[in-house]
Amino acid sequence: MAHVALVTGGTRGIGAAISIALQKAGYAVAATYGGNDEAAGKFKDEHGIAVYKWDVSDFAACKEGVAKVEADLGPVDVLVNNAGITRDGVLHRMEPEAWRTVIATNLDSLFNMTRNVIDGMRARGYGRVISISSINGQKGQFGQSNYSAAKAGVFGFTKAVAQENAAKGITVNAIAPGYIATEMVRAVPEEVLNTKILPLIPVGRLGEPEEIARCVVFLAAEEAGFITGSTLTANGGQYLA
Ligand code: CAA
Known about the structure:
The protein is of the alpha/beta class. The protein contains nine helices and seven strands.
């Protein structure tokens, strides 16, 4: 039986590439999304991947959503915490809402999702939890105190939960992508991207979503059982953590 993989934010951007790569690697994939019905419908039709809509910042919605996925596909063996948003702005002009919504979607979601799959993984003695952090959680980023804080939190969560579940056959790891060619990065003002970001990437280009997806496939494998509590960095050499 194919392992079931659940990818949050799995219908667009890096998440879509992850869902597709896991499907190609033989997993039964469920991709969640938060709001863009059109993109999700198109993704489902094009790739034949099951899509589910819920808000990952809402614990009860995650509980209900995981139950639905498990009823449809079977127990979740691989959880990819990928859903994330930005509300960029300097701290001295940031409104509480921009802080709260980024922390809730990018960090609370790790608790909300992992808490709802971990009992099953522990009972079955197998699991993979992979969370997408960011270079900006490692180095901090001008205009992203909210996002950098949330993404830095991913590392602490990963290391703690890895220790708690190592004896149960569950690995818990983080991936720290650099600047990847997605809508999120294209939303950065062009001048900022060209003068403040691209020149700092030694490889000389943005990354591709597929380059992050292959990191996920690597960590999700049964053969990756000795890798836990770690961070896999893929940033074109921009920041050497
Ligand atoms: N480092 C140093 N200075 C910077 C800077 C940076 N990275 N970015 C902007 N500045 C400077 C500008 O040059 C400008 O300086 P002057 O006033 O001397 O001209 C000043 O800060 C204000 O810049 P803006 O006019 O752009 O100010 P703003 O308030 O309109 O916007 C901002 C500020 C929201 C931070 C905007 O610059 C921005 O969006 N920056 C990009 C932030 C970023 O990298 N986001 C990553 C999104 S992608 C992502 O998050 C995925 C991932 O994981 C990597």
